[in-house]
Amino acid sequence: MDHFPTNWGRPRNDAFDAYGTYPIHQRPQNGPKDAFVDGVQRTQQPIVTGTSVLAIKFKDGIMMAADTLASYGSLARFKDVQRLFPVGDNTVIGAGGDMSDFQHIQTLLDGLTIDEFTAQDGHTLGPAEIHEYLAQVMYARRSKMNPLWNALLVGGVKDGKKFLAFVDLLGTTYSASTLATGYGAHIAQPLLRKAVEGYENVLTEEQALKIIETNMKYQVAIITEEGVRISESKTLDTHWSFAEGIRGYGAQAQ
Amino acid sequence: MTSIGTGYDLSASTYSPDGRIFQVEYANKAVENSGTAIGLKVKDGIVLAVEKLVHSKLLVPEANRRIQTIDRHVGLATAGLLADGRHLSNRARDEAANYRETYNSPAPLKDVADRLGLYVQAYTLYSSVRPFGISTILGAVDQDGPALYVVEPSGVFFGYNGAAVGKGRQLAKTELEKLKLSELSMRDAVLEAARIIYLVHDDAKEKDFELEISWIGPDSGNLHVHVPKDLFDEAEAKAKAALETFE
What is one GO biological process annotated to this record (chain A) (predicted)? Predict the structure, then answer.
């Protein structure tokens, strides 16, 4: 029974449940609707992507390498994109995944390092702090169903301690003496493990570079107690003559 | 100030009949009671120096710094109320960070000074607030090279080649005018800055003081940092020696 006389004799508004007869979760929603709710989209796939980053521990620090290709789907869209980024004096991060998300992460870290710098309190952020910060950001974003679509390697040396760890779009973290993202995680990781594990405190910079070079075409970052060095883009000698005899490669003579 | 006590000095939002705002002028008085701060714009960089009066021997050395860092390339030295100085430096940091966010490049000092000037001026408009008892020396090496500005309690700001605020500003200004600032190296500027601070310090009236010097330029990797210890010690020793020959 509708006890409001003003409603008597009028067509019933079925959309309005005056007595709360439905269970709460079934009740029709008559409040204002967000007109754009169907228009809002979150990242569901990366667009311009980078893939492999390799990193290993060696005697004096961390060596990290990444190629400079950013692909648009299967198209090799940008050929000279830097995917290694120094943060402060002791850390380098390398990124696979969406390159615009990576650029956003660079902006975040730049702001963070300025905040730390302006405090002038004698403390600087090391690789462990940078990694923790990134892990928090990545996990918070995935929890908002709006992830930053990256797999990141964080490497560095501070106070005589080597640090190398991983964090990805889910906020997953782990640490090992060899790490890789993207295609490199499938192809290079087993080779790196074989070459590096057990020799982390023995390998010289030259030997480490050799290991990286047999696995990559790239840019190399070397982080030691002395600081960060990131090389120019280099190309590797590749040998494809063996492919001549393969069916489906090059012009087909049948 | 003949019209003092006539009621026109009670609020920053009231003019006196001859068109002055006494609360702003009182804010300038707060600045004049503070230890001297100077800034030098030289050939390729900026040097800031401050005479920090230490009111107690119990204070931790190097605490309560009056030279602060706003952005990688921007430094700020204040004269006046210490707490106001910290509030303004926080605001300047926000403005510099906001510029970066918007334009993705380091803020030119002119823009930081402009925004800080607007902020300070807003505190001269309302009866509910008090103007800042602070004169701010802003220094930076930006896209166009070294830059030096002073923001006053009224909100006006001017660019300078050499700036001095606080108690000993008159003597400091005459000393700065004697220097060929545009030909000075950063190192020499640090020595001169230390000498001037020691010169303007009035031993008879004031207790102890602590010297603070920072710089921005090629010598510091274009970052605003306090000068390295060896250079600081050298500058301080030379300043003390110069003082003895001066007298």
Answer: proteolysis involved in protein catabolic process
